[in-house]
Known about the structure:
- The chain has a seven-stranded mixed β-sheet with strand order 1-2-7-6-3-4-5, with helices on both faces.
- It contains 16 helices and seven strands.
- It is globular and about 70 Å long.
- By secondary structure, it is an alpha/beta fold.
- It has two domains: 16-238, HUPs (Rossmann fold); 252-348, Tyrosyl-Transfer RNA Synthetase (Orthogonal Bundle).
- Helix content is 52%, strand content 9%.
- Bound molecules: tryptophan and iron/sulfur cluster.
- Iron/sulfur cluster (SF4) is lined by residues 274-276, 288, 290, 293, 295-296, 317, 322, 324, 327-328.
Amino acid sequence: MAERIDPWGSGEVQDYRRLMTDFGIEPMEPYREAFKANRYIRRGIIFGHRDFGRIADSILKKKPYVMMTGLMPSGKFHFGHKMVADQIIWHQSCGASVYVCAADLEAYVVRNIPLAEAREIAITEYLTNYLALGLKPPFTFWFQTDYKVPYYRLRDMMSKEVTFNELKAIYGEITTGKIFSAITQSADILHPQLSGPQPTVVPVGVDQDPHIRLTRDIAARMAHSYKMVAPSATYHTFMSGLSGGKMSSSNPASYIALTDAPEVAKKKVMSAKTGGRATVEEQKKLGGVPDSCSVYELCRYHLIEDDKKLEEMRAKCESGMIMCGECKKNCAGLLERFLIEHQKKRVEAGRQARKLVEELR
Ligand code: TRP
Ligand code: SF4
């Protein structure tokens, strides 16, 4: 059966290759060498794209481009979300104009989060962490429910370009609220081009691809009124949960939040699901399986930048030279150092975030 993607569903993917062939997502390989400074591209975590060529060209030739992405303010900001943050910041360092949308409408519609609460989460969880991780003003930040007239005009005009049957074909079961948030997301993505066509990249988890496809179709159909370049996208694989299964905001044991007390975070690592064997003897003999280990994953995605060090971790594991207890301790140490540093930066970033949002009013 074909993989189906539900952007409002569980976000679990069985087979990324299959997804790529079914939906026409291009492999990222051709860009790996040129952008190997980016850990996610280098390690194949960003595995696919649509029209990344335009973006690569902009970066390499230092031409203007837009990095646009959105966040659903619905819970703690964890290491899964950090992936997007790192990409936003990377694009900014490559010269992109940054647009970040807080999808408070979507959080209200699909997660039942009151708008005031969504706003607080967007500020204290997302924006604060983005700034602490290195995002620098100026950038454009807005809430879906209080943005500008031209954005709404665009969204409303977009509604005419897509039929109900198309929406059903893309999303399956759909409600009025979901239709609105889908079209709003298309406006999120395209409105940076209201002032003129610009290559735009949207770094997302692959669960967002239905929205990207919809937006690309709509962009083409809006040619009568707006001149816009179809948005490009990059897709990353999801991190798995620390407790096995998926990483989910509704299960705190499955993730490490960037605000978790270092002690709590360390405990989560110490009790995480690994790729270790049932007994020490077995592990010494057969070695562990880093590719099904959430501790290794945390290091590969976030905690170990140096490829040689990561390779060492893998080799020690696979050869049975190290047991999970010791290996987890190493990882917990790296995590602790990161969190202490990060949480220090959050203090000033928090003030800055609040000020930024007050200025939007
Ligand atoms: N739907 C996205 C999510 O669930 C959030 C989002 C809103 C978004 N607008 C966007 C993502 C525009 C990318 C581009 O996380
Ligand atoms: Fe994971 Fe480390 Fe155990 Fe290998 S030794 S399975 S990398 S915790």
